[in-house]
Amino acid sequence: MTSPSETPSNQTNAQTNAPVNAQDAAALAENLLQTPQPEAERRFSREDLRTLARRYLRLFQRPQRVDGRFSARNFWQSVGFAFEGLLFAFRTQRNFRIDVFLSVSVIALGFVVRLDVWEWIPLVMMIGFVLFAETANTTVEWLVDLLTGGRYDIRAKRIKDVAAGACLIVALCGFAVGLLVFWPHLFPKW
After folding, report:
1. What's the pLDDT tens digit per position in 66-107?
2. 20, 13 contact by CB (below 8 A)
3. Residue 164 CA to chain centroid, in angstroms?
4. Measured between alpha carbons, how far is 174 from 156 in angstroms, rounded to an integer?
5. What is the mean pLDDT of residues 112-130?
6. Cα 172 to chain center, whole Å?
7. Active-site annotation holder among 6, 30, 39, 134
8. 56 CB burial (10 A radius; 0-12, 13-18, 19+)
9. Is 30 in the active site?
């Protein structure tokens, strides 16, 4: 029987031996370090246990404040890094430059034919999807190249081919949406 001072969460913690706060975690780590174990039964070294305890304790710590913010990089730095990534993709990826050129052309054509607001919605969404797919494809290609170390591997080729295929699907859908939106404006008699 449990006493009234014990809460159900404490019972669960006692049953599972899972520490709930930083003090319990520190006590458990210290207990593990102090418990004598024969060398044959010891699965972790003392340093391994200390490292695990430190990592577990970090879960209970609040984020460190830097300059009054919760992270080392503030929001505007993150936005700057995102623009650096887009600029890198624009400089190094031919298909991304083609997609940006076509997107700007579609936007210009939309202003020329005076699209309604409801016609802009699918266009802007598809432009975003196409550019996202191209940057995701670039990311997959660079990651596969990094993991394979430049060596040819048929699995790496398949991964790149599937990512490029996904990008092609999104581009074809964007083309179809563009046709559906612009056809009545460009060919009103058909």
Report:
1. 555 555 457 777 788 889 999 999 999 999 999 999 999 999
2. yes
3. 19
4. 27
5. 95
6. 25
7. 134
8. middle
9. no
CA 165, CA 145: separation in Å to the nearest integer? 18
Whole-prediction pTM: 0.60
Please say whether the beta carbons of 167 and 139 come within 8 A. no
Q: Which range has the worst mean pLDDT, 44-58, 74-88, 93-107, 160-174?
A: 44-58
> What does the block give as tokens for 143?
């990651």
Question: Both tokens of residue 49?
Answer: 């246990």
For residue 144, what are the contacts with CB-CB under 8 A and spacing of at least 6?
A: 156, 159, 160
Distance CA(190)–CA(187), nearest Å, equals 6
Instruction: Determine the pLDDT at residue 159.
Output: 94
Residue with tokens 């612009």: 182
DSSP-assigned letter for residue 70:
S
Contact by Cβ (8 Å): 73, 142: no
Angle at 98 (CA atoms; ends 93, 103), nearest 5 degrees: 125
Q: Which two tokens stand for residue 167?
A: 């990008």
Per-residue burial over 118-156, b = 16 or more CB atoms within 10 Å of its CB, e = otherwise = ebeeebeebbeebbebbbebbebbeebeeeeeeeeeeeb
